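Q: Bifunctional NAD(P)H-hydrate repair enzyme, please. Structure only.
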Amino acid sequence: MLQTWTSAQVRAAEEPLLALGVPLMERAAFALHVRSTAVLRELRGTVAGARVVVLAGPGNNGGDALHAGALLARRGVEVHAVLTGSRVHEEGLAALRRAGGQVLPADGSVDEGAALAAGADLVLDGLLGIGSDGAGLRGTAGDLVRALLDRGRPYVVAVDVPSGLGVDDGRRDGTVLDADLTVAFGALKPGLLLPPGTHAAGRVELVDLGLDLPGAPAVVRLEPGDVADLWPVPTRDEHKYTRGVLGVVAGSRAYPGAAVLTTSAAVRAGVGMVRYLGDVGDVVVAAHPEVVVGHGRVQAWVFGPGVSPDDAGQRRRIGYAFEHVLERGEAAVVDAGALELLPARVGPHAVLTPHAGELARVLVQRGEDVDRAGVEADPLRWARRAHELTGATVLLKGPVTVVAGAHGAAYAQADAPAWLATAGAGDVLAGLLGALLAGSVDAVHEDPTLAAALAATAALVHGRAAHRANPGGPISAQAVADALPGTIAELLGR
Ligand SMILES: NC(=O)C1=CN([C@@H]2O[C@H](COP(=O)(O)OP(=O)(O)OC[C@H]3O[C@@H](n4cnc5c(N)ncnc54)[C@H](O)[C@@H]3O)[C@@H](O)[C@H]2O)[C@@H](O)CC1
Ligand SMILES: Nc1ncnc2c1ncn2[C@@H]1O[C@H](COP(=O)(O)OP(=O)(O)O)[C@@H](O)[C@H]1O
Ligand SMILES: [K+]
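A: Structure for Bifunctional NAD(P)H-hydrate repair enzyme:
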């Protein structure tokens, strides 16, 4: 898994090492220069004779970049530093000058700096690091980057983080310099994984500085190798009831497909049994003879796919279930039409699966003033807010799926191709996650943060099944469901 730590956690980890005189900046700058030479070799075959521009802000991030620039200059690279203010890392600047680098001071014209950078083989972005206030680049740094972007962005290596990015939350509220490669020091920061900022980072490489990072990671991204630890694999003695029964209240005469897709994903994900409740049991059984129609014991539920506001029958079933089943300890996926029926307070074993528009409605229902765009601008904040207000685990769907759960658990999954943005894909995710919860409900009660880990697992498997369904091309939701057994087998075999 990829783990991230906030600026505050990184600073706390650096403090004791700096007090001992450990040369963290030297280590960071050396690694940055090594990565930069690799990029230059890739881009132009050789390092000597390349043109590199260092954009140097006022702090240590600029210091890293200037020291790396000095090392590059010693290898025959033509290095220019463009300063953005009177404050600059003096040692770094002196090192660059000693190595033969040129310096364009901040009182030079912004256009001159931008022209220099636009013509470089590689730009080292040392404008702002973890000292950024997250509001985007302001002042000369902002003017410089806007002027550079007007001319066309060269190859950019972000030093630690892309400058202007919300380091801890992934917001990009103002000017940000997008990178092709981010060389992160000591730890990945949450903004490198969280939308919308994650897209500014390009490829991310971590440089180990030997930090002893405090506490739990802020935001995690599960990787394929993590799935086997989280998947409820049946043991030799199990039978269908111990493996978990999933109840599905989904679909209607108007939207029978949602019932088929949800049950299809649940059956394919390997649950002990699927029970269907609703008016289109005949359609569901025709598609999946394994499904049992009618009441009985279940461990987890999926409520809501394809349930419309005028569907009195399904709404009554969901309302009744909300009054009884969550208190009995049964887990639930609450999707689409069930979201607005959610009781005031539930536990983390209820997992909401809204997209940004639906999450905005859940929040507005509870007195928050936010719309879809607001959720998309700061998804983890709003997913966390919904968790605080409802008690539920929240999986917020999108190009990067964000999960917020109990005790601060947070995940950001970027596993899916954009082809997955197709009708019915959400129904498949709901069925898949329902199956996972049905197989793990006891463990979820022992460790409430597990619901968030399982939600992230479902997002990962869903995304990989989409790739597998038709690599590089269009996919239907049913094809994603059909790809689940093979995808899961592959992940469990890793
Ligand atoms: N602390 C350490 O021990 C280490 C830090 N390192 C580097 O140091 C960086 C952090 O250095 P600093 O704490 O000096 O912080 P920065 O280099 O990010 O600079 C912060 C300063 O920038 C200005 N600023 C903040 N927001 C701004 C905005 N929106 N627009 C324009 N100016 C703004 C403020 O004056 C602030 O003091 C890390 O990201 C990393 O690159 C590395 O050298 C490794 C060791
Ligand atoms: N641009 C994108 N790239 C990758 N995945 C996406 C993108 N947009 C949406 N998705 C995923 O596609 C699915 C769409 O679900 P949803 O919005 O509920 O659609 P529906 O209700 O039609 O099933 C979600 O899993 C979401 O994370
Ligand atoms: K930076």
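A: Brief note, in case it's useful. Residues 2-218 form a domain with the Rossmann fold fold (CATH 3.40.50.10260).
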